[in-house]
Design a protein that fits this description.
Chain A is an all-beta fold. Chain A is built from no helices and 11 strands. The radius of gyration of chain A is 13 Å and the shape is globular. Chain B is mainly beta. Chain B is globular, with a radius of gyration of 13 Å. Classes of the chains: A mainly beta, B mainly beta.
Chain lengths: 116, 113
């Protein structure tokens, strides 16, 4: 089956610094990638959708200058949390899709970000 | 507005017993329905989907789900639960050509030995 990897799996950073999370589709070309945020015992919150080579589309309430998304190739998307604050601590999950709707998305294992 | 409801925060079942995790939805247009499972500190794994055709869909790990259009439901079932099935289960729906999945809040399944 399709595999999506994320790196790092866990990161701790100091308040005010930036951190980059990578999402890769290992055995398929991801025309669309999604970034989600998940709080403890809660559902997934879609942050943004990106198509390869295009600017990401951010969901309402998500600061695009804070959460920079780059989808430069069909196998790689990055999420950069800029000037991180403790409230940015969360579980970030990327997802990728290789075909148009309505087919399923494939999820990465997630990245646990802790901002101290 | 499109929505997905998982009415139970938690489901407890004894190992070997059948399990059901409920999901109802509200969308305009034809729904595309999905079930995902999440183990602790892990991403989501796809279990099964309903796009069209037979209302009973079989998926991974012995799970199945039945699409019921009149009741707008897509309950997840398994005839005989395993302790290893204990996890968080999410139902999701996409309507028509909308690119976004709408997620339920999740149901925590605990299978007791």
């Amino acid at each position: 089956g399709a595999v999506v990897s994320q790196h790092p799996s866990r990161v701790i950073c100091k308040s005010g610094t930036s951190v980059k999370i990578e999402c890769r589709s290992l055995d398929f070309q991801a025309t669309t990638m999604f970034w989600y945020r998940q709080f403890p015992k809660q559902s997934l919150m879609l942050m943004a959708t990106s198509n390869e080579g295009s600017k990401a589309t951010y969901e309402q309430g998500v600061e695009k200058d804070k959460f920079l998304i780059n989808h430069a190739s069909l196998t790689l998307s990055t999420l950069t949390v800029t000037s991180a604050h403790p409230e940015d601590s969360s579980f970030y999950i990327c997802s990728a899709r290789d075909t148009p709707v309505p087919y399923e998305q494939y999820f990465g294992p997630g990245t646990r970000l802790t901002v101290t | 507005a499109q929505s997905v409801a998982q009415p139970e925060d938690q489901v407890n079942v004894a190992e070997g017993n059948p399990l059901t995790v409920k999901c109802t939805y509200s969308v305009s247009g034809n729904p595309y329905l999905f079930w995902y499972v999440q183990y602790p500190n892990r991403g989501l794994q796809f279990l099964l989907k309903y796009i069209t055709g037979d209302n009973l869909v079989k998926g991974s790990y012995g799970f199945e789900a039945e699409f019921n259009k009149s009741q707008t439901s897509f309950h997840l079932k398994k005839p005989s639960a395993l302790v290893s099935d204990s996890a968080l289960y999410f139902c999701a729906v996409r309507a028509g050509n909308n690119r976004k999945l709408i997620w339920g809040l999740g149901t925590s399944l605990a299978v007791n030995p």
